[in-house]
Amino acid sequence: DTLKTLLHNEDWAGVFGAQNAEDAYNAFLNTLAIYIDAACPKKKTRNKKKTNFNHKDGEALTLKETYLQCLRKYQTTGSDLHKTDTALAKKNYDLRLKMLKRQASSNCINRADNK
In terms of pTM, does the model score above 0.70? Predict the structure, then answer.
């Protein structure tokens, strides 16, 4: 409602009295920017520290390579057999990553001081 009131009370003479469309647009944009900043100030936020998940597990890397090889074969041939192999390899790789993430979060909880 504050922005609506501010815009309603504005004179807009600078916009309507401009010599050309570009000047009118710039006047409108400046006025609008001032009122938006006044009515809706920017909030200061802090980014949450994101911990990177380390998935450099030997088996995971092997599964990834297998998946990528199957994917390349499927993209080359387009065969239904290779498509099935690719889906299976991706599923195995995704399950391994899911297990590693679950294990990492469990370890993080176990090491936490605020239990």
Answer: no
